[in-house]
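Let's practice the habit of predicting before peeking. Look at the sequence and jot down your guess about where helices and strands might fall. Then scroll down.
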Amino acid sequence: DVLETARSMSRQGLSPGQSGNVSARFADSVLITPSGMAYDAITPADIVRVGPDGVAAAGQRKPSSELHFHLATYRARADIGAIVHTHSLHATVLACARRLIPAFHYMVAVAGGDDIPLVPYATFGTEELAHHVVAGLAHRDACLMANHGQIAVGATCAQALALAAEVEVLAEQYVKVLTLGSPHILARDEMARVLERFASYGQKAQG
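Done guessing? Here is the structure:
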């Protein structure tokens, strides 16, 4: 799942080159993409298994440089089963402009709230960045990282990847709306109604 998700992320253009990373819980460990390898060249044996202490067993590849924020996010939220981090074009444009994605469209609620927040900049691969990411994902399933990219989470790799793709679509729409002037932002009470309706949207089990 981790390998196929990373390849799909790359094929969809969500993360050019070797950028971005994918992880998933596995028993009491985390499986994560290796550092600095092209996704088409990775095999299942290259996926790195890291223990809860952040240490990979000897003989494995070097894990993604962003291992810190993956581990910190899993520790903070037991409901998360997978994380997808991308440098998708429009989400990264907004992150570099240091703009969050407000409720310009009701689908912003797909990330679990009335905006998709922006977390402060910190050097990649640091504990400081991990701290910012954990704060940004405390009440959301996606966030932008200043001057960096975006992160999306889910119960499964497929869900996290689908959300990352949705965030990129919303980011592109918002960038284009900004070229027309100031966007109209939906009120918080309306977004609260949207979030309530999302709770029973689609093919979810009937109560």
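How did you do? The chain has a mean pLDDT of 94.
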